[in-house]
Amino acid sequence: MVMTRESKVRSYSRAFPAVFHRAQGATLEDENGRAYLDFLAGAGSLNYGHNNPRIMARMMQYIQDGGIVQGLDLMTTAKRNFIDAFERIILNERGLNYKIQFPGPTGTNAVEAAIKLARKVTGRFNVIAFTNGYHGMTAGALAATGNEYHRRDYVGYSGGITFMPYDGYFGPEFNTINHIRRFIEDGSSGVDLPAAVLLETVQGEGGVNVASASWLQALEALCQEHGILLIIDDIQAGCGRTGEFFSFSESGIEPDVVTLSKSLSACGLPMSVVLIKPEFDVWEPGEHNGTFRGNNLAFVAATEALEHYWSTTAFTKQIQSRSQLLFSRLHAMVKAHPQLEIAVRGRGLMAGLAIDQYPDMARMVSKAAFNQGLIVETCGNRDQVIKFLPPLTIETGELTRGLSIVEQALSQVIKEHPPVADAAGDFTGDTLHDCSQA
């Protein structure tokens, strides 16, 4: 199937060639009635599943009552209710004090606003970002994205970004915090004292790389020591994806600025926020704006999700239970195929199977899984990681069934395209690479 009228820039429709018609929970259905389990979940924007009944009912009632849909940044009852619920259920329960900014509706808009704010607060321009980080596709966010494929047409445009090695980039024995400290404290390093440090606590597109709590704590201390704002991009890893509402909660740090989007709206509608410590909320009225920063339907859906899923600890416990199942099955896959040296990464319901030796294999497994009725994507600097982002509301039986499909797809790929050993007995990826190009 070729969608000849759509631009060649399309991507997901290439990897998953079907015309989808309806969806519910963790299931997508194509126009021919074939069902697919969804371990992509709108790239993490559907944590509560497709067409969540409670959330959809609340939105439909709001529309039937004549509620405002587009409100610019006017105060509306929908916005007020969201702010109240977010403060009461999320911030107060965690002892956090943030002002809430509504920038443009997408994650990259939130990142742009955060970078801009940090530069305004500090009067400095440089921002430290990290290897394998991903923050969006607009100019400032793109400059902070590590992937060469995305940045290659921006040659010569750095946007005032300095890249530093993420936790574990040089291996577990190398403390990259010391590396960063040396650069920012040495006046001859060529690295200007940054306005901010921008990072994901779990790098999604970069390969499901997880920063340790101790590394995050040391980074926060370094930022505080030098008056650098710490910005956590929680657009994909937040909103419960790693278990807690914020991905950084487990580490005990308290970022100066947090960006949220994707599943914040609870139903896939565009919505983002920037959370700002009050002392750094130095914006002038209208200094950063956008026409579509008042998506009131998203406010309504988000409020319903907060009230229903986050008013108690039950949902977090459910995520943790599903996470245990997910990771136990992934580790079993690793044990079943020791010749591949697969690594399991992630936290909560954000996981990856990294097949670093044979980067083509992950894409082949994704394709085989799709043919068996499962949508699961790849990520990493060579697309060598099979990435798991099922809805947080997924039923245990659905999660089990999807993981069984992955197991079958992995075994099928290995059987059809077995890795071969060289004369020294080491496995090579030549056979896999050649077959993937056929």
Structure in words:
The chain is of the alpha/beta class and 438 residues long. The chain folds into 2 domains: 56-309, Type I PLP-dependent aspartate aminotransferase-like (Major domain) (Aspartate Aminotransferase, domain 2, 3-Layer(aba) Sandwich), CATH 3.40.640.10; 313-436, Aspartate Aminotransferase, domain 1. It has helices at 12-15, 41-44, 53-64, 77-91, 107-122, 139-143, 148-151, 176-185, 213-226, 296-309, 314-336, 359-371, 396-416, 430-436, and strands spanning 20-24, 27-30, 35-38, 99-101, 127-130, 161-164, 196-199, 202-203, 209-210, 229-233, 257-260, 273-276, 343-347, 350-354, 374-375, 377-379, 385-388, 420-421, 427-428. The strands form 5 sheets. Strands 4-12-11-10-7-5-6 form a 7-stranded mixed beta sheet. Strands 1-2-3-15 form a 4-stranded mixed beta sheet. α4 (77-91) runs parallel beside α10 and α11 runs parallel beside α13. 45% of the residues are buried. Mean pLDDT is 92; it is low at 422-427 and 429-438.
